[in-house]
Amino acid sequence: MPAPIPLRFIHRDRAATVVAPVAPPRLVASRPARVPLGQILLESGAISPGDLLKALALRDRQEVRLGDILLAHGWVSDRDLMAALAKQWGAALVDLLAERPDPRLIDQIGAETCLTQSMVPWRRVGGTTVIATARPEDFHRLCRNLPQELGPYAMVLAPERDIHAALLGRRQTALIRKAEARVRADESCRTRDAGRLSRLAFGAMGLTAAGLMAAPTLVFALLFGWAVLTLVLGTGLKLAAFCAEMIAQKRLKRQIPAPSPAIARLPIVSIMVPMFKERDIAARLVRRLSRLSYPRELLDILLVVEEEDATTRAALAAARLPRWMRVVTVPAGPIKTKPRALNFALSFCRGSIIGVYDAEDAPEPDQIHTVVRRFHERGPEVACLQGILDYYNPRTNWLSRCFTIEYAAWFRAMLPGLARLGLVVPLGGTTLFFRRAALEHLGGWDAHNVTEDADLGIRLARYGYRTELVATVTGEEANCRALPWVRQRSRWLKGYAMTWGVHMRNPVKLWRDLGAWRFFGFQVLFLGSLSQYLLAPVLWSFWAIALGFWHPIQAVLPPAALHLLGGAFIVTELVNIVVGLWAVRGREHRHLMAWVPTLHFYFPLGALAGWKAIYEVIVLPFYWDKTTHGVFDVPPSGAGVIATAVTSPLVPAAIPARAT
Q: What does the pLDDT look like over 523-541, one tens digit per residue?
């Protein structure tokens, strides 16, 4: 491809006049060395020698540009840095807000590609395409990947924020539509036939009702049998996962830890924090994330807010955000979901590792270091690391105590146990970290799925990637009010139903992608969990026999089988209690041990959530029933996280706890 041709520009107040392209210089044996950026900044008085030395030392250990280091620490201003880059590269600065780029050129390259590469095609001048970039050192590599029919290319410079603003100003609609449809149609909820699903659901309920009237004993026995089967399978899977994790932990204690391989250069980590109607959480969020010990120049935190969310936008505008935090505003559209916002913000991320936090999260200070080390130790097939969630308000009330125990089981025993058993790991919604290349290969999140995280965990497995649990803790606020609990759990269950339906469109292909063992685990985790929530009252009715009432199942099973069934129910409950006690044996959570048996009275709320979820799957499939944060948002002093709770599975069957 022809070499880029330099252009010269003459600037006036708000306009730029293009002078004819300068002829390319003759090839010579060697190119004169470019003046170092630091030297230019020193000579212009834009930086002190001491700050420059510190920045150069940091650059030698990190995968980051010198300019980003200087900006992150406030050692240089944007204006001085751009002026120095223009002098170093002999390129002009352009005002993209005054002289807006040509949208036709953006379309030929792709707005998403432009965002990811922090560049925008600006003009066609004399047969040359002028590219505005914030990364001049990458310009020649970039040109090799651009359409050859637009070449040759010439470079001008512009600040990254102006490039982003120019792209949004020209192609905002295209970017948001891409965010809504990044995942393949056959893997997304957006192609579901809502009318057909409604007819099937109403048909199934109608047939069940008719069956109960025509043959009540037989139909009730079938429902009861399915509920018992899913209970036994779910409890068995939970116990197997718990045992696998407990055995693995004992082995780890006996092993002498091998030294971790050194990391030559630390990578940039981008963390997205989706926010919605967060009135007063901004200051606390900044304070909590500021505790992270990862180098500031390598932290790229994006606070993702909806365009229509005036409350959160005003709160962030009033907050003093550090240079390593920035706000990404998601344009309005036909749906408003967390995965849609994440997909939109993904193109703005700078890092090779992508993380997700919730607005109320309080991660351990060394969490990013832990994640980077684990990715470095593992091969590229490990595409996702799931951290552990815990709660900083378990003493608020009984509901928060039960919620804390449930989460401890899910994130410290069930999920790592599933991973050790080689099963699919349904992800939580926060403290997630991905290799960017793998995440983009999958198309990001399904914007139409309200449990986008669990769905992404299934797609990772189907594409051959592995997910591992990493021993780092994030503190959250436990949902401790009954109605918000039901709304939150119903959203999770609705997403589980949608996820199961999407992946079961072609069961044979799912079997081939996952294999028999993981296919079985998927059915128990998703279909079994949904069945347990919906049919919980059917199981509870069994205890009417103990109270002396007649039960329809007595007409089907002999007395010996009834006693065996009752014993199985008791064993299931004992398993949950024993595992729950093990779960909270840590120093921080020992006060919860007395509350473990009361989980028997905690899960009836789930039945309400289950029926609400099925109703919404039919009527409001894409409605996001948001969990309110900041109600009992009082983390302890210090790191603000709980790091010692150890757990096990304790929900009835395999009913999953999930992240907000």
A: 999 999 989 888 888 888 8
Handedness of CA 178, 189, 313, 78 (dihedral sign): negative
What's the pLDDT at 231?
93
Average pLDDT over residues 643-651: 32
Report H helices in 396-435. Answer: 398-409, 415-420
pLDDT score of 368: 95
Q: What's the CA gap between 554 and 556, in Å, rounded?
A: 5
pLDDT band of 628, cuts 50, 70, 90: low
pLDDT of 60: 84
Structure tokens at 138: 């990458």
Quote the CATH superfamily of domain 9-22+34-180.
Type II secretion system, protein E, N-terminal domain (3.30.300.160)
Bridge partners, 266 (sequence order): 62
Owner of token pair 């609609």: 173
| Pairing relationship of beta strands 9-11 and 353-356 according to DSSP bridges | unpaired
pLDDT at 643 over 60: no
Residue among 92, 120, 126 nearest 105 (CA): 120
**What tokens were used for 354?**
């992508």
Least confident of 55-59, 188-192, 199-203, 384-388: 199-203
Q: State the pLDDT at residue 121.
A: 93
Across 285-294, 314-323, 428-437, least confident range:
314-323
Residue 219 identity (one-letter amino acid): V
- Residue 397: other Cβ atoms inside 10 A: 15
656 preceded by a cis bond (ω within 30 of 0): no
Residue-wise pLDDT tens digits, 393-416: 888 889 989 988 888 888 888 888
Q: Are 321 and 356 in contact (CB under 8 A)?
A: no
Closest CA to 302 of 371, 375, 351, 339: 351
Q: Are 353 and 461 in contact (CB under 8 A)?
A: no
| Rg of the chain, C-alpha, whole Å | 28
C-alpha separations of 532 from 201, 219, 235, 524, 556 in Å: 18, 17, 11, 10, 22
Cα angle for residues 650, 656, 660 (degrees, 5° grid): 120
Q: How far apart are CA 616 and CA 625, in angstroms?
A: 10
Pairing of strands 382-391, 466-476: parallel
Average pLDDT across the chain, whole number: 83
C-alpha–C-alpha distance, residues 179 and 19, integer Å: 39
DSSP 3-state of 214: helix
In the DSSP assignment, the letter for residue 418 is H
Helices (H), 584-643: 604-619
The domain spans of the chain are: 9-22+34-180, 207-250+273-660
Cα separation of 461 and 437, whole Å? 15
The pTM of the full predicted model, rounded to 2 decimals, is: 0.84
The CATH number fitting domain 207-250+273-660, selected from 3.90.550.10, 1.10.150.450, 3.10.20.30, 3.40.190.150: 3.90.550.10
Q: Which residue has the higher pLDDT, 650 or 449?
A: 449
Which tokens in the block code for residue 444?
């990001």
> How far is CA 301 from each of CA 271, 368, 432, 480, rounded to the nearest angstrom?
5, 12, 14, 29
Residue 16 has pLDDT above 60, yes or no: no
User: β-strands 153-157, 353-356: how paired?
Assistant: unpaired
φ, ψ of residue 271 in degrees (nearest 5): -125, 125
The conformational region for residue 70 under phi > 0 = left, psi -120 to 50 = alpha, else beta, is: alpha
Sign of dihedral through CA atoms 406, 407, 408, 409? positive
Strand ranges (E), 232-306 = 269-275, 299-306
At residue 6, what are phi and psi to the nearest 5 degrees?
A: -70, 145
Write out the two tokens for 337. Answer: 């979901």
